[in-house]
Design a protein that fits this description.
This protein is an alpha+beta fold. The mean pLDDT is about 80.
Amino acid sequence: MRRRKKPEGGTFELGQLLEGALKQLGVKGDYDRFRVEQKCRAALGEKAARALTRVDLRKRTVHLEFNHSIWLQEMNYRKGEVLKMLQRDLPELGIQGLSLGLSRGGRI
């Protein structure tokens, strides 16, 4: 008797399973924001990452807030570089823009 072949396509990547579970739990947006924040902090460097007080992801736009106007000015020069990096590293999020602002409160 011949052994049957296993049907192909029955395996899933762990990332796909995790993403599906997060969608069902209703926390996928929080996970996406966390991933964007980690990428931004890594791209900015240690000092600028400490000045970063808030990262938000809304309607395919990443909004970054800094605690001092000097860092805001510095990031205006690096805005294009950070946007390209986010688009390259997180293509599934479809990030189209990057906005910068000055935080009114302390670090969250």
